[in-house]
Amino acid sequence: MKHSAVHVDDDSGHSPSDDEKKIGVEAGAFENAGHHELPPDPDEGLSDAEKARIDKKLLLKLDLKLIPWLCLLYLISFLDRTNIGNAKLDGLETDLHMTAGQYNAALSIFFVSYALFEPLTNILLKRLRPSIFIPIIMSMWGIIMVTMGLCHNASGMMAARFFLGMAEAGLFPGVNYYLSCWYKRSEFGIRAAIFFSAAAVAGSFGGLLAAAIGLMHGIGGKSGWAWIFILEGLATVIVGIVSFWMVHDFPDEARFLSDVDRARVIRRLKADQQSSAEHEEFKMAYFWASVKDWKTWNSAVVYMGCDGALYAFSLFLPTIISELGYASTKAQLLTVPPYAAAAILTITVGYIADRTRQRGLCNIAVSFLGIAGFSMLLGGNSAGVRYAGTFLGALGIYPCVANTISWISNNVEGVYKRGVTMGFVIGWGNLNGVVSSNIYRDKDKPGYKPGHGVVLAYMIVFLLGGSILQYFLLKAENAKRRAGKRDSWIQGKSEKEIEMLGDRRPDFMYTL
């Protein structure tokens, strides 16, 4: 591919920067490259070994700049949405005179607002920029968390939980979408897994933190549960403010990248059949492309299988363990080991799925751990057997959530289509938190058999069944594309029109 000499664009008056001159790039060179063409190579003339060293160094730079802070944000997010389970053990229901039904309603209403606003958030993220959108919503939900510690009745707690769901709705789908715009498909899974493992760490950390903060009972006339909300809310506000400087924008605008590194990032994404790092104007056609794609709805079924189980587990694990006969503080501490084990397996599965490109098979294999765990919770009689069941339950749920998100992201191409699809899928999954919030009822304790039975059904029918169906449908579609049965989709289309087909391009092969 020949490149024109660098010049000042006579129409726009735009002159390339010093770095652009070094790599010989005209303004718009990346955007104008067709789907079979790669943008100019800033490392042209170097050996493969030198290019590999540069690429490894670039990847490390991206990881250090993006992943640690985003993990901290999600740890705080998951801690803030699930700490109500820890607060319940410290007397929340008694102090606010809440019935069991009102407590479950307070859990449910979070997921209603969360699911309602989630599909819109990725569009807002793209239009407002991550460095603005994410810090704003974090600061908002931190303030709401503080108000939860100041509530005096059930209606106040329900109102606070509704607005908490609205404010938190943008983080999880937004960050997964954001990371998918930075990394190749074979690199995304492990990073999504590390990011999501923060949820497991939050569960682990949340039990320890709640046990410590609960000791503040009586200080300032506040109960221990109130201090859990107030202190964790204030910490969230502080982190939200710092995030204005710590969260970076998409590759085409990120300030920490030199123009040479920006060229490398966009080129490596193009080589991976992605255009996600480039500018793309929102059109309703992208929205409808997502709505009409069967993968959107099948992925939503798979995701509800693990997400419904996730919220049931994370919201009620302290209660489940306390019903095994342990006091409040010990029950809080016993929630730590299952979460720690889940975090390790989540990262391990992310690594394996990236290397093998077999995300569907990873989902299928790991789901059997969760099915075994909830079978033990359902049928076990001794406290030891049921506590072991919580380990297997966590191991079967957490890796599947991160792996399913990676699977969806890998198989949807186009900036806005991917964002809309992930919003729909994650929104639907979180709406199932309404179900999860109401299946562990006080009248069913200590065994909670209906609750365990519902989670088991979710994992067998939706997670396992949906993953098997999607695996074989994608495998069949790839076979048709290799056989040339989809080539008619690009007949008579220009290079740009073919590129805009995204994952419907006949040369786009789905990750199984």
How would you explain this protein's 3D organization?
The protein has 512 residues and is mostly helical. It is 72% helix and 0% strand. It contains 21 helices and no strands. Helix 3 runs antiparallel to helix 8 and helix 5 (100-128) runs antiparallel to helix 6 (130-148). Residues 1-36 have low confidence and may be disordered.
Which key features would you list for this structure?
disordered N terminus; 512 residues; mainly alpha
Mean pLDDT: 83
SSE order, as H and E?
HHHHHHHHHHHHHHHHHHHHH
Rg from alpha-carbon coordinates = 24 Å
Fraction in beta strands: under 5%
Helix count, per DSSP? 21
* Sheet with the most strands, sense and barrel status: none
Helix content: over 70%
End-to-end CA span = 32 Å
Global structural class: mainly alpha
Stretches where pLDDT is under 50 for at least 5 consecutive residues are 1-36
Instruction: Please give the number of β-strands.
Output: 0
The best one-word shape is globular
